[in-house]
Amino acid sequence: MENLIEKEEVIRNCLEQGDREAAIKLLFDLVVDCAKEKNFEAAEAMRSRIFEIDSMALSEIIRSGEVIEEEKSRTIGRGHREIWGKLYDSLTAEETNALYFAFKNANYQAEGKIFQQDELQPRLYFINSGRARVVYFLDGQEVFLRAVETGELAGEDTFFRLSMCTTTMIAQCATEASYLDSDILKVWRTNFPMLESKLQSFASSAEKIADLLKARKLDRRRLRRFNPGGKATALLMNTSGQPVGKPFKVDLCDISKGGTCFFVKIAKKESACLLLGKRLYISYLHPLLDSSHTVRQSGTIVAVHFHPFEDCAVNVEFDTLLPKELIEQLEKLSPPLMVFDF
């Protein structure tokens, strides 16, 4: 292949002479060359230039896109396709390439932690080789929940919803995994609108972490919750415990000994996501109790449930449990709700 700089110079001369057709042909040839060399970033850049020069050069624009997708497909190894064949069978060629090229790869030694309980790490893990275990730490003791084998996923409970890690995953031997960062979902919603739902459908076959925790009576929903009603005052804090911004009013949804949930108006999911892991101080007084029964607690935002056109539900885990006497007073004045998140 001729030197890229030389070809760029020829294209520039063609454009200066008004010969757009020749420039587009040269750019198309560059797209093909770059794609065959697996330099997809350069190939996409050349294709974009075709569009900029003549948006009506549909034949070259369409064909160059096909060439890039074809070469990307050839990049996906046979072994990888065999492991994740069921998933790829549900995707179009474009979706397959979008998924594969969004992957980041990582290797873990035996007993290496892949993700950790109570950390903010919204990633979806694909185990390509090896084996790992998902565990829950209770009072410093490791409780086994499930094994994750080659060809299985983990992390779906935090990847598809705004939540801290509720469990820890540990490699049991040398393990190679691919993972997706949740930021990619925003890109896909514009360019590949069906890809997220297809991936979520595939991930739904895995046993739910919440069900595993409940089966072992370990889930954070074990504490009784209730709804005393009314408004509370919330104040964001930095890592040093200093207030950030001004206090704001929130509608209390429910409360338990270990945490609370409140509603707040947030217009965008991206803004809601920024709350995850943030420190917060909350103050609440039931209208029928005196000031000695005021709830004053600091805690961490561990989950955000965003629903378009509705208030956003924010779950906070308290640093310390509420006093038994205060809980009893609040419970007497509140109708019961199922069970709590903490």
Percentage of residues assigned to helices:
25-40%
Radius of gyration: 26 Å
- Could you give me the name of the CATH homologous superfamily of the largest domain? predicted glycosyltransferase like domains
The chain-level mean pLDDT equals: 83
Strand order of the largest sheet: 11-12-13-16-15-14
- Largest sheet entry: 6 strands, antiparallel, barrel
Q: In angstroms, what separates the terminal alpha carbons?
A: 63 Å
CATH top-level class of the largest domain: Mainly Beta
What order do the helices and strands follow?
A: HHHHHHHEEEEEEHEEEHHHEEEEHEEEHE
Would you write up a description of this structure?
The protein is of the alpha+beta class. It has three domains: 4-75; 104-215, Jelly Rolls; 223-337, Beta Barrel (Thrombin, subunit H), CATH 2.40.10. The chain contains 13 helices and 17 strands. The protein has helices spanning 4-16, 20-36, 40-53, 58-75, 78-83, 85-89, 93-100, 156-159, 184-191, 195-203, 209-215, 269-273, 324-332, and strands at 104-108, 113-115, 123-129, 131-138, 141-149, 153-154, 162-163, 168-171, 175-181, 225-226, 231-237, 243-255, 259-264, 279-284, 295-305, 312-318, 336-337. The strands form four sheets. A six-stranded antiparallel β-barrel has the order 11-12-13-16-15-14. Strands 1-9-3-6 form a four-stranded antiparallel beta sheet. Strand 15 (295-305) and strand 16 form a beta hairpin. Helix 1 (4-16) packs antiparallel against helix 2 (20-36), helix 3 (40-53) runs antiparallel to helix 4 and helix 4 (58-75) crosses helix 7 (93-100). The termini are far apart. The model is unreliable at 338-342 (pLDDT under 50).
